[in-house]
Specification:
Structural class: alpha/beta
Number of strands: 26
Oligomer: single chain
Shape: rod-shaped
Number of domains: 3
Strand content: 15-25%
Largest sheet: 8 strands, mixed
Distance between the termini: 62 Å
Length: 621
């Protein structure tokens, strides 16, 4: 039954955690943690097969032109890159609007000469009240009529504004348009875009022999190789600056620096991406390496990272969700059982070790196997379950204290109850030698009384009598040792030290006597037969503690002085006394200044060879 309880509570915790772990707040935390892993892994070596031609602030200063540049500039760029031997030329620049007809025609004619140029477009989504309007912006028709391929350059960010995914295609109605990254790879492997070599599966996107694992229905994770400018980058103006082109900067210097011929060898057999890198064009983005140097990454370099990922098959893969959920549920059960049973002062160190071990494992899976598993979920699970275990153990402790109080509060002094609550180990087996005063109270001739009354009458009057007597004992700091039939055995001075234990025993006996007189009047008024009691008190050293067998034990006292107390009580039948209370000489010596008592006799008690002095207890002085 206990294991079922653990499983049920663990399942409830598991469901609560799953709800927490799918919130945007939590997903953002997980993304930040994975970004840290990128930075810990550091910049990775790249193939060198991809270079970037940037249009940045220096480009505008050199050319002294406003955007958009004349289309002849882009035609010149294509010609120079083709002469340099570039394998592919990809524009992350959208030629979606007409300009000068001659310029557009010049660019179209240049593109038509080559089959390795890729252009770009974009899917635009506009919100109109309760509907979304989608528009696919393609390059102007004069450019696409050449048969040149083009792809989308949409970049999507996570809720925290960081780009970690690459969109493989855009879907508008039933039309699917591949991204420039997918187009580049299809062209690189000489694939027909309409062939079965390009296929969209639920969990993978196939391009030739490459199966790109998807993280959403249309995107894959980007395995970033470093921060901004990890890839070799060249200025647009330098690439178009050849012997036939004079930049504004060269005009001012009245010289021709001919930068192209200095750069040409850097483009042979390379995949070349051309894009805007100036911040004012709003095509720069936060990536996992942003915190390292606080530099945004241009969109063109994001495309470069994805293409490099596919070329090297360095795909980041998320751990399968079904096995992960099974593992985390099993971990929840084991953690809950562990933290519910092990002391928090011990379990905290083991939990810390588990957290550190899991984080190290997560990083090793990421850096060596390119497997991403949730980084923070299990550490948070461990922390929360530790707290839950702490609370449950506290509740269990409270229950134990309540049980002790309910179980023993009616039989022992409140001080002893508090002592047991503070240290339940006092209930363990064992005893010590200690001086105490014991009190024995017994009903005189109880057997004949029971024979002349019904069991119910006997039980009712006995319950009332014992209740009143025990109340007086506990009020006077006494400990109820046991009931032996109708006999009450109490002790004073154990388990807690009591300086005047002999006096408190005497005071208790006198109060019991007064209460018995009151009960006699009450019973007679109720037409119930009263009975008489005898009380014996003795002081001495006894063995006191939790005694008995290892399976069943009780807090009690044993020893010669306990037996002497019982024998002294029996003497109340042999001597006529005022209150029917007899105390030993050892008790009398400790209370001689506080009570009135009369010497009775030197008596020999049963079981003892020596003679002891006994006294009749009269009253408190």
């Amino acid at each position: 039954m206990k294991i079922i309880k653990y499983v049920i509570i663990s399942f409830i915790l598991f469901v609560i955690f799953r709800i927490l772990f799918i919130t945007n707040f939590w997903l953002n935390l997980e993304h930040k943690a994975s970004d840290v892993f990128f930075m810990l892994r550091g910049e990775q070596e790249i193939s060198g097969d991809i270079v970037i031609v940037e249009i940045g602030d220096d480009t505008f200063n050199t050319l002294n032109e406003r955007w958009p540049f004349p289309r002849e500039y882009h035609a010149k760029l294509i010609e120079n890159l083709e002469m340099a031997g570039a394998s592919q030329i990809i524009f992350d620049i959208e030629f979606t609007e007409r300009t000068n007809i001659d310029s557009d025609s010049k660019l179209a004619a240049t593109i038509a000469k080559y089959d390795n140029v890729i252009l770009s477009g974009k899917l635009i989504r506009t919100q109109y009240n309760y509907s979304v309007r989608e528009q696919l912006l393609s390059p102007i028709s004069i450019l696409t009529q050449t048969g040149t391929k083009w792809g989308t350059v949409n970049i999507s960010a996570d809720p925290d504004g960081f780009v970690r995914r690459y969109e493989l295609f855009q879907r508008r109605a039933k039309e699917i348009k591949l991204s420039i990254g997918a187009i580049v790879m299809a062209q690189h492997y000489q694939l027909d875009l309409l062939s079965e070599d390009i296929e969209n599966y639920p969990k993978f996107f196939k391009i030739g022999s490459n199966y790109i694992p998807k993280v959403t229905s249309k995107s894959a994770l980007i395995n970033y190789y470093g921060p901004s400018r990890t890839f070799s980058t060249y200025d647009f103006a330098d690439v178009i600056d050849d012997s036939t082109f004079t930049t504004n900067f060269e005009k001012e210097l009245e010289t021709d620096l001919d930068q192209y011929y200095q750069l040409a060898e850097n483009f042979k057999d390379k995949i070349v991406l051309i894009g805007l890198t100036s911040v004012e064009f709003h095509d720069t983005h936060h990536t996992p390496f942003f915190s390292e140097n606080n530099q945004l990454m241009p969109g063109v370099e994001i495309h470069a990272n994805f293409i490099e990922t596919v070329l090297r098959s360095d795909y980041l893969k998320r751990f399968p969700i079904i096995p992960y959920l099974f593992i985390i549920f099993l971990v929840t059960i084991l953690l809950f059982i562990f933290n519910s049973l092990i002391r928090p002062t011990i379990s905290i160190f083991i939990n810390i070790a588990l957290i550190i071990g899991y984080i190290i494992l997560s990083y090793l899976l990421f850096s060596t196997k390119l497997i991403i598993i949730p980084i923070l979920e299990i550490p948070i699970l461990i922390i929360i379950i530790y707290i839950v275990g702490l609370v449950l153990q506290y509740i269990q402790t409270v229950k134990e204290r309540k049980f002790i109080k309910q179980a023993f509060g009616q039989y022992i002094a409140p001080e002893l109850v508090d002592e047991l609550i503070k240290d339940p180990k006092k209930l363990e087996y064992g005893g010590v030698q200690k001086e105490v005063t014991v009190l024995y109270s017994d009903i005189v001739s109880f057997t004949p009384y029971t024979e002349s009354h019904t069991p119910k009458e006997t039980v009712d009057i006995l319950r009332e009598y014992l209740t009143e007597m025990v109340k007086i004992i506990t009020e006077n700091k006494g400990t109820l040792d046991k009931f032996v039939g109708d006999e009450i055995v109490a002790m004073f001075g154990a388990p807690l030290d009591l300086e005047d234990h002999a006096f408190y025993a005497c005071k208790t006996a006198l109060e019991m006597r007064r209460r018995m007189d009151e009960l006699h009047e009450k019973w007679e008024a109720e037409n119930r037969d009263p009975f008489e009691i005898g009380i014996g008190i003795n002081t001495g050293v006894v063995t006191v503690g939790n005694l008995g067998s290892e399976q069943i034990f009780d807090y009690t006292a044993i020893g010669d002085n306990m037996n002497a107390g019982a024998r002294i009580e029996a003497l109340t039948r042999d001597y006529e006394t005022k209150n029917n209370i007899i105390i030993s000489d050892s008790t009398y010596e400790q209370v001689i200044d506080k009570v009135e008592a009369n010497y009775i006799d030197d008596a020999t008690v049963k079981g003892k060879k020596i003679v002891i002095k006994i006294h009749e207890l009269i009253s408190i002085k």
